[in-house]
Design brief:
The structure holds 2 protein chains of 2 kinds. By secondary structure, chain A is mainly α. Chain A starts with 13 loop residues before the first helix and ends in a 5-residue tail after the last helix. Chain A has a single domain, classed as MetI-like fold (Orthogonal Bundle), CATH 1.10.3720.10. In chain A, helix 4 packs across helix 12 and helix 7 packs across helix 8. Chain A contains 12 helices and no strands. In chain B, helix 7 crosses helix 10 and helix 11 runs antiparallel to helix 12. The longest helix of chain B has 39 residues. The chains are: A mainly alpha, B mainly alpha. Chains A and B meet through helix 2, helix 6, helix 7, helix 10 and helix 11 of A and helix 2, helix 6, helix 7, helix 10 and helix 11 of B.
Chain lengths: 271, 286
């Protein structure tokens, strides 16, 4: 008997390898989108009004950068997001925890929270404007309102998901109520806290944009809104691109890793 | 006394002790809130412009409908039926966006889920589109379509389509290849595979996506009506707020959440439960 043929090595052609790589696909896609965008804007009438070419948009961004407005808008929006989501989380986590610890309180407040969660932040916006006027306070309240519920609900279900036997075990060994909360319930709820935080910050981001638009406070949301009123479509598209990319970067490089790390570290309870 | 005890026992038997307890406990904060609201009317801690009396909010319904010549006219969308017109136009947009957006989203989602190449190019676009939240599209939509129907419809469609697309794609991808190959071995065509395997397999994920799309879409629709609409509940509360008719704003906000809660509770949640029960073999909760 001759030795068996070595298993055929599957060799991909260079072309196939190139088109299979995600990076290359992404580059092709980006170039394709820009070319399509350029063609459409060249074909339609009055491109400046309806769809300015990529070049025009780029020039307008240089213009805004030069005036220093772009950076100040950007930092305004980010500051709002950071402050809003931190305060929202600081309010939502303890609230969810209290609800998770006590079944009676949870049963009491759950329907109320459910109702207010379905009243979206955007819908109560007009009421907040009547109360506080078109100010930064209004935007901040809308951000806090929208970011509060997802985190509170997630912490609640996280605390609930800790198996009873862990609590019983700690209690058998003489742990106090405080120790049970600190050593069992909190670590057990950690993955839900991480998931809820990401959700909350996502909601906060939408609220920031909407709030700035409606209350006319300086920022990216207002930048695109002003772009519409000033007939400056390039500014709108630039703002939208910034909004999209900021969220993708934030989500991909900060929130997602944070979430998966937390789940890895504390995730024995779920999964 | 015995009659009362009997009554209480029979109610407890009928609804179950736990559920009854939950229900009553849940009612307490609502009752407190409404009580506080009423007290505010009596003692005027806050101006009626800031927090209108409950009676005024209730009366706003009739005040807004006062010139309406009757039920049939309200259904027809008579000009003077302000409240019912706004409600109908909001709901109409939801229905229209659902009718157009759902088949499109599912169709493209199945295509992208079945074909790696298509998904490689559509997925990044989807990620970007979902990141530019529906609300951020409003100014551009206003430039393109002007203030009115098209803008609000576009915003809602945009939100629904991408969410459904994504969820369908994920659902189709999660369908085990073995099942598809099984169908193909038995001589099934591509269409058979879609109809018999991919679609049912992805169904639970699609419905979950649909629920999400409704949640986000409804919010986006309200925002779009505020900025770029000329009718609808969002438009109504925005205009009323600028005229400081707070009772109309409260009424609108309450209606917006009731409509959302009702569709979610009575249509989408049962649908979700039913599909997961019916087709949930393939789908595993993430």
């Amino acid at each position: 008997m001759t030795t068996a043929d070595p298993a055929p090595v599957r060799r991909k052609t260079l072309r196939k390898r190139l088109t299979d790589s995600r990076a290359v696909q992404l580059i092709i896609l980006t170039i394709g989108v820009f070319i399509l965008w350029g063609i459409i804007s060249a074909v339609i009438e009055r491109p400046d009004r309806y769809l300015p070419s990529p070049l025009t948009t780029l020039i307008s961004s240089a213009d805004l950068l030069e005036k220093g407005v772009l950076i100040s808008f950007y930092s305004d929006t980010l500051t709002r997001l950071v402050i809003g989501s931190i305060v929202g989380l600081l309010m939502g986590i303890p609230f969810g925890l209290i609800l998770g610890l006590n079944r009676t309180i949870a049963d009491m407040f759950y329907p109320l929270m459910n109702f207010f969660q379905s009243v979206s932040g955007i819908a109560i916006f007009p009421i907040i404007v009547i109360w506080f006027g078109n100010s930064s306070t209004t935007v901040m309240i809308v951000i806090l309102y929208t970011s509060f519920f997802p985190i509170a609900f997630n912490v609640l279900s996280g605390v609930r998901s800790v198996p009873m036997r862990y609590i019983s075990a700690a209690r058998t060994m003489g742990a106090s109520r405080f120790q049970i909360i600190r050593d069992v319930l909190l670590p057990g709820a950690m993955p839900s806290v991480a998931i809820g935080s990401r959700l909350s910050i996502g909601f906060a981001w939408r609220a920031v944009i909407a709030g700035e638009m409606l209350a006319g406070q300086a920022g990216l949301g207002n930048m695109i809104f002003a772009g519409q009123e000033l007939d400056n479509t390039a500014q709108i598209i630039l703002g939208m691109a910034l909004i999209g990319f900021t969220w993708i970067l934030l989500d991909h490089f900060l929130l997602r890793p944070l979430e998966s790390d937390t789940i890895e570290r504390w995730g024995l309870v779920t999964r | 006394m015995t009659a009362l005890t009997d009554f209480s026992i029979s109610i407890q038997r009928r609804f179950g002790r736990q559920r009854l307890r939950k229900f009553i406990l849940g009612l307490i904060p609502f009752a407190l809130l409404i009580g506080l609201w009423e007290l505010n009317t009596a003692f005027v801690w806050f101006d009626p412009v800031e927090i209108p009396p409950i009676a005024d909010v209730w009366e706003a319904i009739f005040w807004l409908q006062s010139d309406c010549p009757g039920f049939m006219a309200a259904v027809d969308g008579h000009n003077s039926c302000q409240l019912s017109n706004n409600i109908l136009s909001s709901i109409g947009r939801v229905i229209l966006a659902t009718v157009v957006g759902v088949p499109l989203g599912i169709g493209f989602g199945i295509l992208a889920g079945m074909n790696r190449t298509i998904s490689a190019y559509l997925e990044p676009i989807g990620v970007f589109m979902n990141s530019v939240s529906g609300i951020a599209w409003i100014p551009l939509a206003v430039v393109w379509f002007g203030v009115g129907w098209e803008t609000t419809l576009f915003i809602m469609l945009n939100t629904i389509f991408w969410l459904l697309f994504f969820n369908t794609m994920m659902g189709v991808r999660a369908v085990p290849k073995v099942l598809v190959q099984g169908v193909q071995t038995l001589g099934g065509s591509h269409l058979d595979a879609i109809r018999q395997v991919y679609l049912p397999g992805a169904m639970p994920s699609i419905i979950t996506g649909g629920r999400m799309a409704m949640g986000f879409g409804w919010r986006a629709l309200i925002a779009a009506e505020m900025i770029g609409g000329d009718s609808g509940l969002g438009f109504m509360i925005f205009v009323s707020a600028s005229e400081f008719k707070t009772e109309e704003v409260f009424l609108g906000v309450i209606l917006i959440s009731i409509i959302f809660l009702a569709t979610d509770r009575w249509i989408l949640v049962p649908l979700e439960k039913w599909t997961i029960e019916r087709w949930g073999l393939v789908w595993k909760p993430t």
